[in-house]
Amino acid sequence: MFLPRIVKRMSPLLGSRMSLNACRFASTDLVRTEVDDKTGIAVVTMNRKPVNSLNLELLRELSSALDAVEKNKSRGMILASSLDTVFSAGLDITEMYKPDQARLKDFWTTLQEVWLKLFGSGFPTAAAINGHAPAGGCLLAMSCEYRVMRPNLTIGLNETQLGIVAPSWFMSTMENILPRREVELALTLGKMFSTEKAHEIGLVDEIVDTKEEALAKCTEFIQLFARVPREARALTKQSFRREALQKLDRDQDLQMFIYLVNQPQVQKGLGLYFESLKKK
Ligand SMILES: CC/C=C/C/C=C\C/C=C\CC/C=C/CC(=O)SCCNC(=O)CCNC(=O)[C@H](O)C(C)(C)COP(=O)(O)OP(=O)(O)OC[C@H]1O[C@@H](n2cnc3c(N)ncnc32)[C@H](O)[C@@H]1OP(=O)(O)O
């Protein structure tokens, strides 16, 4: 459950530029939201060790954080990770392997919700990709309008490598950034791009050395819109994204997901993949 703890104070504990400004914090264990009072930009930080895998609870808290950013009328939102080397490992395999059926339904519905809110948000969004971003992690980053990444990491939709299929709205999200042919190739290969390659093809906008620099670049991007009327900007962004958003038939997508995940060969594949991750 989202229980925001909101305080207003000067924070000598925070590093970088955030420390200079009074900040409001709305935090839970899994997601920390800090709004810089000077810029009005919210930094939403995922904090689920060891790899920010997206389980039901993390997704619920992300969903609530997005509601809070919208409600607070923040100038924009930066999505980041508290972990040193991982942005998000994507969907938590344990939610899909030998699942409790009621929870599985909740899990997928909440993922849809997070995507609809993030991809369809009116406020400006940017991802500070300070660690690897496979599959669902890549989806979150791609749902933002701008991506800044540290070097020597990986990002991509690797689902086919796991023997599963990325839903069509994952594909549309990548198609919002890259040419269709490039997307088809990336998805059929289950390609994980290095930071450098992702930058070369335009999946990532900038490469920086540190998380602090990534946050600063994301802030600069969001501040580009400071003088653009908020509503006009929001409607323009949403017009560009409407087709992809409307294509998602939530009920049908849920039924398809439940059916596919419960197939014995998919369960076997997920089990083997999970074991291989553990043995690593
Ligand atoms: C033919 C028909 C087809 C089928 C259709 C079927 C279904 C279709 C429907 C839906 C599609 C579903 C879409 C899914 C999208 C996804 O997001 S799936 C998840 C994909 N994610 C990954 O492949 C990433 C896997 N992880 C990694 O590559 C690495 O962990 C990572 C690079 C992120 C970090 O590396 P490192 O720092 O070295 O950490 P470790 O690898 O050592 O991992 C630490 C512990 O974390 C556990 N873990 C890692 N990833 C996950 C995860 N995604 N879920 C759960 N747990 C994870 C790992 O096992 C380690 O645990 P341990 O410490 O050993 O207990």
UniProtKB/TrEMBL annotation:
Q: Which Pfam families match?
A: ECH_1 (PF00378)
Q: List the GO cellular component terms.
A: mitochondrial matrix
Q: Which domain of life is it from?
A: Eukaryota
Which UniProt key words apply to this protein?
Answer: Acetylation, Fatty acid metabolism, Isomerase, Lipid metabolism, Mitochondrion, Transit peptide
Q: Does the keyword rRNA processing apply?
A: no
Reaction(s) the record says it catalyses: (3Z)-octenoyl-CoA = (2E)-octenoyl-CoA; (3Z)-decenoyl-CoA = (2E)-decenoyl-CoA; (3Z)-dodecenoyl-CoA = (2E)-dodecenoyl-CoA; (2E)-tetradecenoyl-CoA = (3Z)-tetradecenoyl-CoA
Q: GO terms for molecular function, please?
A: delta(3)-delta(2)-enoyl-CoA isomerase activity
The GO biological-process annotations, alphabetized, read as:
fatty acid beta-oxidation
* InterPro entries xref list: ClpP/crotonase-like_dom_sf, Enoyl-CoA_hydra/iso
Annotated pathway, please? Lipid metabolism; fatty acid beta-oxidation
Question: Main subcellular localization, coarse class?
Answer: mitochondrion
The keyword Mitochondrion is annotated on this UniProt entry: yes
**Compartment annotation:** Mitochondrion matrix
Q: What does this protein do?
A: Key enzyme of fatty acid beta-oxidation. Able to isomerize both 3-cis (3Z) and 3-trans (3E) double bonds into the 2-trans (2E) form in a range of enoyl-CoA species, with a preference for (3Z)-enoyl-CoAs over (3E)-enoyl-CoAs. The catalytic efficiency of this enzyme is not affected by the fatty acyl chain length.
Quaternary organization? Homotrimer.
Recorded protein name is Enoyl-CoA delta isomerase 1, mitochondrial
Q: What is the lineage of its organism?
A: Eukaryota, Metazoa, Ecdysozoa, Arthropoda, Hexapoda
